[in-house]
Structure formats: C-alpha cells, structure tokens
Write a structure and sequence with these properties.
2 copies of one chain form a homodimer. By secondary structure, chain A is α+β, with helices and mostly antiparallel strands. Helices cover about 15% and strands about 25% of the residues of chain A. The radius of gyration of chain A is 22 Å and the shape is globular. Chains A, B: Pfam families: Pro_isomerase.
C-alpha cells in the first residue's frame, strides 16, 4: 500500500507511461538521457516556490485546544458564509466554547462539538438566525476548473483556495470534503447560530452541499477528532453525561500570544504549481502505479496547506 | 447536522419537491389526502422485503478478533480476485495471522494489518505471486448503472452486490470506497501475496482502482480500525516495536462454531428496493434538505448490508 508521501524508488516500469514522442525525439541525438523521475503530487508541493503560497490571516484561524492536550486548527471561510463566520469569531472572542466538548463522533460521517445549552448567555453581536449562506452567485468569482466530470454539479474547481461547485442555476457553493467544517442545524429553515460545529471525518457527504452553512476546514489536527471512539447512541452521539473529548478553549489565532500563534499558508489555485499538482493528482505515474486514472474528484485534489515556514 | 438515520419530523416544506402532477390529479377528487412522508434511504432499506436480500456465504466472511476484544468482519470478493481470495482463505485456515497486528493507521487513507515477516512459514497452497487481478472483462457481467457522471470511469454501477467501474477499454474494476479491503503490495509488478491487507478509512482513494487487488469490504466493525490512534511515522506506520491493535485470530466464518458464526446479507442491485434506495440517495427530500443533489457518487450509495435476521 503506497501513499502520496511514499518515496518510491525509480523503476523502468513507469517508462511506458511517458508519451512515445518524447522517447523518439530524445533517442537519435546522443545517448538517451536518464528519464526524469515522475513527480508525485507531494514532490510537486514540496518544490513549490514561495510565490505559490498565500498566508491565511490570523483572524481566519480558529484554534481548538483540548483539556487533555492536543490542538485542532480550523481555517474559516468568511467569503462564503460571512454572517456565520462573524458569529463564530464573536463566540470565540467571548469564550463561549470554554468547557464545551466533542459530543458526537459518527463513523464515516462527522465529529461534532460545541455547546447546545440554550440557556448559556451569548456574547454580544451574535446574529441568532443567520441567513442561509449555502450558495452564492458565481458573478465576479474566478473559479479554476478542475476539468473532470462530477456527479453533483455542472463543474467543480477552486476559488480563493477553496473547493467549489457550480450548479445549473449558476450558483456556487463550497463543497463537503474530508475535513470540511460546517454549522450544525435543525430542520430547515433553521441555519444554526454557529455554536455547534462539525468536521467531516469520512467520505465526502456531498448531499449536504447547498443545504448547510460551510464555514471552513480543518488545516491541522483532524486526527484529534477522527480517531476518537465512535459514539454509541443514534447518529454517533455520546451517551448523556459523557463526551468524546473536553474542550479547554476555542480562540482565534489573532487572540493568541505571538509565541503560541499558529500560521498556515494555502497554495493559490492560480499558481502554475497548483496546476501541476492537480494534473499529477489526476495522472499518477510514479512507480507504484500501473494505470493513471486520467481524472480526479474534487475532494481527492485537496488544496495544499502548510505551516508558514520560519523567516 | 442530520444523517440518514435521523427521524426528522414531517414538515410542509418538503411538499414542493413532489411532482406537481400528483397534486393536480389528487386535488379534484376528494379532500386532498395527506401527502406521504418522504422516505430517507434508511427508511427504504428498513422496509425492504426479504426477496431484496442475498445471504453472504460463510466462506466469504473473514472474521478478525482482537486481543483486547472487538471484531471486524470482511466480506471477500472471490469473483473479482479469485487467486488473492484463495490465498486469504488459506492464510486464515492455516492460522497465519494469529498474533499479527494492525500496524499502520493513516488518517483519511487506510488502516493496514497482517504479517510482513518474510520468514514466517506459509500454509500450503499459497500462490506466492498472484496475477494482477485488478480488472476483468465486462463480458457476461451485468452492471446496474448508477446513472451519474464519474470523474474516473466511463460509468459506475453495481454488480453482484459490489460497486464497479467500467473504463474506456471495456474493462471493469471494483472501486475503492470507504471500507474497501485490498492487498498491500510493493512497487509493480508485485501484486502482494495477501498476508498484508488494508481497509480504507477515509475519502475514496479512487486513484488506486485498477492498480491494486481489491479483495473485499468491511461489513461490520470498521470502527475497530478507523478510530485507532494514527501512526506517528511516515505513511501512518507505528513506531518499530509498537502496534495499533493486536490481532488474536483471523478466521473464515465457515470455520467458526455455529453459535459464534456471524451472518450477513447484502441488498441485490437487481431488486426494486435497491433502485428506490439509489434514487433516494441521489435525491434526498426528507425535511432536513432544502435542495436535492440530483446525483450521487458511487461511494456515497453504498450497497446496504445487514445482519441476517433470526428465522
């Protein structure tokens, strides 16, 4: 079993995947040069120039620290769900989630956390009933298409560092992939205030796209949620009185002391490196592979994210 | 945050999703009847008649019991990878995996288990170098198409209770979805003997389709693998000398005493119930949803599996 990060050794077996023309042109000139080792998506990301990366603003990072240690960092998506994200920032700043918990872990679906205590006082400025920020107009919105068929949307691609889908009516939504963070809600037209959040810990539940407010994605520490014991009650909820993991605090990175403030960068989809990365994701030709897929689904071409390198 | 199994209460909001014709026809006759509550995929599965189900033969069930308790059951796929599956049956019958372990858990990818000790004697009858059972001819092979676009294949659907993809060259493969079990291998042309197996515990890694021998799927107890702490070494491997979980035994269900022998059934894709289930998966219209997707990807329409009901 291999993986993107496997440093597979070069073998002659992969030669057949190169275009035949390359070999014909190269042969008559001199002794045939050693063909370049095919790059994995991870190789391409590792070699990306600084210009391919964008630093995520500290006020877009939600830092979840657990009682027992460990940290999960979520990048917020204010462009797509501004009212929900404003609520979440205010809840974090107001200390709303101190002493809250991860209380639902459903296998191949979601881990959910926060506070569902109706009596807990809200910090000032919370919009109790946010609008349904599920889709937005595609107008003025540059999408880099991924270029492959999708069962859910007319097309998929990336915009502003996020995976997006465009639909027949022209609207655009963020996409539920592994690690996507959304706002728990009750039956429509409720959209959720933001006090209960979930992260996807299984196969992309795309049926939720356009039906729920996506507010971000986990950029570090998803395993603090995905590796938790599954809840034993219906829908993966923990039994009354027990929780999967206690949360010590949820804060914006901008509110943390500089020494403890994490910083991350995402790869801009407008960069040539991203284009090469997406191509490699769809056409794996490193030595492990016999057949390149020739396509990739949007959740299998995740936007590369890294810790901001030290200056 | 909802789920298939949510018993959402009926609301008027879903009315708009019924075909208008139904309402027009019904209205003039008498007082309009209460519209039927939209069924979730789980509702449909729960109401399936006995004729929709096929019992999985006991020699197709691999039962993994852990030292610390807990059990994972894998359904084998002999039609697709007969030589690999014959190896696996012989390894199980020979007690090859007693005292083995889950030694790799990589987030959003795979959990891997078995024995990679080259010196461990093999039971008789093992084919040391199985053929590349990655694809097969579509001829004589009835596929029920799912009917939606796919980024990896010309079409996807179900055959004999398994998710399958058909490619431009006419070949057919099983598909890597959540819970799919495959045979770990080194670089091609190695196909793996079957002594090391993995289960998918994240978003479908479809790039592996046609590149690795798929031999089955987890039908119960995936959380015994998916909820394990992630390995801290490269590719999610555990540190030398430590393992994620010790395995007490791996046996075929047919070798277990009757009282301890699990039995499962899958839903035949040829049944009307399966067609209704797949339609509902692609067109969720229970009260939680504002917009039905109008499509579904093959790994988001998993074949329903259940414990065989008591007679």
């Amino acid at each position: 079993m291999e993986n993107d990060r496997s440093a597979a050794k070069w073998t002659k077996g992969t030669l057949a995947l190169f275009p035949v023309q390359t070999l014909i042109l190269a042969a008559p000139l001199t002794a045939a040069p050693e063909p370049a080792k095919p790059l994995t998506p991870s190789d391409i990301v590792a070699a990306a120039p600084a210009s391919a990366w964008r630093t995520i603003p500290a006020e877009d990072l939600l830092v979840i620290d657990y009682d027992a240690g460990g940290r999960t960092v979520v990048q917020l998506a204010p462009t797509f769900a501004p009212v929900h994200v404003a609520n979440i920032r205010a809840l974090a700043s107001g200390g709303y989630w101190q002493g809250s918990a991860v209380y639902r872990v459903q296998d191949n679906y979601v881990a959910q956390w926060g506070t569902n205590d109706d009596k807990k006082p809200l910090p000032p400025g919370i919009v109790a009933k946010p609008p349904a920020e599920y889709v937005r107009s595609a107008r003025g919105f540059a999408i880099r298409p991924l270029g492959f068929a999708d069962p859910y949307a007319v097309r998929t691609g990336h915009a502003g560092g996020w995976p997006v889908a465009q639909y027949r009516d022209g609207s655009v939504s963020l996409i539920h992939c592994y690690g996507t963070v959304g706002v728990g809600r009750d039956l429509a037209p409720d959209t959720g205030m933001g006090g209960e959040l979930y992260a996807v810990i299984g196969h992309a539940p795309r049926q939720l796209d356009r039906n729920i407010a996506i507010v971000g994605r986990v950029v570090e520490g998803i395993e603090q949620m995905s590796a938790l014991p599954r809840g034993t009650e219906a829908l993966g909820f923990y039994k009354e009185g027990s929780v999967a993991r206690k949360i010590a605090s949820v804060r914006l990175a901008s509110a943390l002391p500089a020494a403890d403030r994490p910083s991350f960068q995402y790869m801009a989809e407008t960069s040539p490196t991203f284009a090469a990365y997406a191509r490699a994701r769809a056409n794996r030709n490193d030595p492990f592979y016999r057949v390149a897929a020739g396509g990739v689904d949007i959740c299998n071409a995740p936007v590369p994210v890294r810790r901001t390198p030290a200056q």
